[in-house]
Amino acid sequence: MDDARLWPLLVIGLAGILVGLWPLVWMVRRAGRRLGSRPQQPVAASRYVLALVVSIVAICAGIASLSLMAMLQGWRAFTHKTHVAELQCIELAPHKLRIYLVPFDAEGARGATEIYDVDGDEWQVGGDILRFKPFMTALGVQPVFRLSRVEGRWNSAADANAHKGTAFDRSPPSLSWLGLYRGADKAPARWIVDGAHGQAVSQLPDRRAVYDIYVTPNGYVVDKRSL
User: Fold this and answer.
1) pTM given for the model
2) What is the largest CA-CA distance in the chain?
3) Is the domain of 68 the same as that of 113?
C-alpha cells in the first residue's frame, strides 16, 4: 500500500481532531467569559451537551483514522520486499549448473545479465545484510544489504567435502561490513540495529522457472515462478 492510498486517512484524522476541538474551544471561551463576569449571549444546556457529543465523536473518529493509518503504515513496512535480483538456472550436465543473474538497482532498474558456471546440486546467492530494530522498521527504515556472492551448493555434506567448491564474488570483501559484523551488538549501534551478518538463499535448478531474490526486514528470501 503506497502513500497515495493513505493520505485520505490522514486528512480525515486531522479534520476530525480539528472539528472535535472547535466545540471544546467554544465551551472554554464561554466558561472564561462567565468567570470574568463578561456579558455573553445565553444558550440552552442542550447546546452544551450537543457540542460535547460532537467533540467526542469527531475526536474519536480522528484518532481512529490516524491509528488505522499508523497500523497500515507499519504493516507495509514490516511486509515490504525489495527486489534485489532475478535469477535463472539450468543444469548443463549432472552437477554442472549455469546461472543467469540480473541485478536490480535501488530504483528497480534491471542491470546487465551476469553468467556464472558452478558445480553442485543447487545454486546459492547471498551477501551481507544490516537489519534494524522493529521500532525502526515501523518508522520505515529498511535493511541495508549487499548481494556479493554466487556459488554452487551440494545437498549433502559428504558431496561438499568431496568436491572443490565453486564460488564467485560479485563485489570484493568489505572492511566496512566486517566492522559492522563486529560492532553491531555494541552501543550505540545496538540501540537501533537488530543484526549485521551474512545470509544466503538457495534452490534447485529449473529451466522452466525464474527465481526472484528479495530482501525483507528479516533478510533474504527467494520466490519461484514458472515460465
Assistant:
1) 0.74
2) 98
3) no
Question: Does the bond joining 188 to the residue before it have cis omega, within 30 degrees of 0?
Answer: yes
* Tally of domains within the chain: 2
CA 45 to chain CA centroid, nearest Å? 52
Task: Tell whether the model's pLDDT for residue 114 goes beyond 70.
Answer: yes
Q: Do 132 and 192 meet the contact criterion of CB atoms below 8 Å apart? A: yes
Q: Which residues pair with 85 in a beta bridge?
A: 103, 213
Across the chain, the runs of DSSP E, i.e. the strands, are: 82-93, 96-103, 114-119, 122-132, 144-153, 167-169, 193-203, 206-216, 219-226
The answer, yes or no, to whether residue 158 has pLDDT greater than 70, is yes
Place of cell 568489505: 174
Instruction: Give the residue among 116, 99, 120, 117 at the shortest CA–CA distance from 163.
Output: 120
Residue 72 sits in the same domain as residue 133: no
Segment 147-157 mean pLDDT: 95
First to last CA, the chain: 27
Q: Indicate if 188 and 176 belong to the same structural domain.
A: yes
Q: What's the average model confidence in pLDDT over 54-70?
A: 87
What's the pLDDT band for 3 if we cut at 50, 70, 90?
low
Would the CA dihedral through 173, 147, 180, 182 be positive or negative? negative
70 and 96 share one domain? no
